[in-house]
Amino acid sequence: MDKLSSKLSFRGNGRKLTVLALLFLLAVCAWILGPMPERPPGSSEGFFSAALHPTLTDQSQSLPDDATPFATRILREMGTTLRYALIAMSMAVPAGLFLGFFASTTWWPEGAQGRVMRMLLHPLHIAVRLLITLMRSIHELIWAIFFLAALGHEPITACVALALPFTGTLAKVFSELIDEQPTQARDHLTASGASPIQAFLTTLIPQALPDMATYTLYRFECALRSSAVLGFIGVETIGLSIRRSFENNFYRELWTELYLLLAVIVVVDILGSRLRKRLNTIPPRKRLVELVESAAKNIKRLKRTAPRWKMTRVLFWSTALLTLLAWFPGLVHIDTESLTRETGQLDRAARITHFVAQITPQPVRESGLWGDAIPWAGELWRANGREALTNTLAMATAAIIISALAAWLFLPWASRALASAQPLGIFSGRASKLRDMAWRLCGLVTRVFFIISRAIPEYIYAYLLIGLLGISAWPLVLALALHNFGILGRLWGEVIENQPPASARQLMHTGSGRLQCYFANYVPVSFNRFLMYLFYRWETCVREATILGMLGFASLGLQIHLARNLFRAYDAMLFYVLLGAAVIFLGDLVSFFLRRALTKA
Q1: Is 401's pLDDT higher than 90?
Q2: 570-600 and 115-137 helices cross at what angle (nearest 10)?
Q3: Tell me: the pLDDT tens digits for 120-132?
Q4: What CATH code is assigned to 69-283+314-347?
Q5: DSSP labels for 197-244?
Q6: Contact at 8 Å (CB) between 508 and 424?
Q7: Is CATH 3.90.226.10 what the domain over 371-600 is classified as, yes or no?
Q8: What is the percent of the chain with per-residue pLDDT over 90, rounded to a whole number?
């Protein structure tokens, strides 16, 4: 009993120490990043009031009479945003499945007979894991900059730049979803003579398919946000209109564009939640089927009349049709920009050769010796790299801790179990329709707040906040925190709702309130999973913080921006990109060992 009580005490103190450590880290990051800047005079004048008065007409008075109307223009750019996201995902999903297969180990042969095969597959497995980590460690905006410089400004280049990091992410998640499935059905098939691959394809893949499908739809939502952000480097998506409207102080136009982007992403989010619910529930059979024939015919009749959710079929075929039209809009005579331009193979080969020469370190270009790159890299590290990396890590860490604390406090008011007039289905106090409606409204508003905060990309948040608050780290930190607040709210909310309610109900029956039930039961039980998602989002924050520095703060992003636009030093740019990718590698290792430790626990 003493050992058990000391172990429980250690766990409780460990959670408290973890929270205190996070608060200490936040204080250290605040000291590194410095104070908030003074707000530029007049920076927010008319910005927030314009949110109540969006417009469908151009605010500019200098446009020619034959200019494309504002409403038509933003709808066309939103269509381009959707098109690029669909094309990118149509490339990323098959590639993610292929790489995810080799990143998984559940199809490997077992026993003494498969020992040699496992030894041969281990190097391949490690190589694939490193490849997908590298693909997702570099932000899609960086991939776009590299590809546009190497291949030219073609729409297909932007689509490939989006597809690469999404392929890495999908491959990682698909492999982990497959690896975490129960293996009893697979073991039964292999014991009955099926090969490991046959058992893998017929048991583990169908089991993981619902989670893989819903995560793919979530990735499409992310692809929409990333496609919009490409507008900030000149690609004609909705982000380009947002940038122009903000720079010209056309705030009513800006809010219309933000509302349009928000509406599309919210629709995709709702479809994702509905699809997740449908794939995880069995449709009820509304009428009985008479079985009066032979057993074989009865089985065929039962299969033919089996109830099926129409939404999954409609969504699948609609997605397939939209993807086909995104690749070939001419099938329905849609006048849009071609994915490729007429460029000679020699011109493209010359551009690639020139770009490869540019990203080769300058000392290596001059001497031909790769050993000369070491002093060059050391000089870059001492001059700007150390400070830039420190600031990037401080931004990412401060943002994820702020968003985690905010989401942690908002969760009780978003939980469907607790934000109710009768929490956990237990009668508490006098029944009242007004009280019930108030609690339902509270939960709905909080969940909508989570959706809205994660719907707008971090880059757009940061771009707007820098214009309103001035250039410093804190607008970028707030942008990251706002976006991750919504994501952690969703992920942690699902963790809480998936917890067995028995212990929480017992607390409620003894007279505990909602908050007491939340802090005394749900938080301790879910703490390890909370921590796992925190590390997962921190890794993403580092990747995003690297990019946000391109807006003017002294981080890796600023060095990347200066190397590209001011000095045309693509070799230095690659150095800073790989420096950020190295941090992601380390974060991925920490996340991997943490997830394995939590699984064992």
Answers
A1: yes
A2: 130
A3: 888 888 888 888 8
A4: 1.10.3720.10
A5: HHHIIIIIHHHHHHHHHHHHHHHHHHHHHHHHHGGGGT-SSHHHHHHH
A6: yes
A7: no
A8: 12
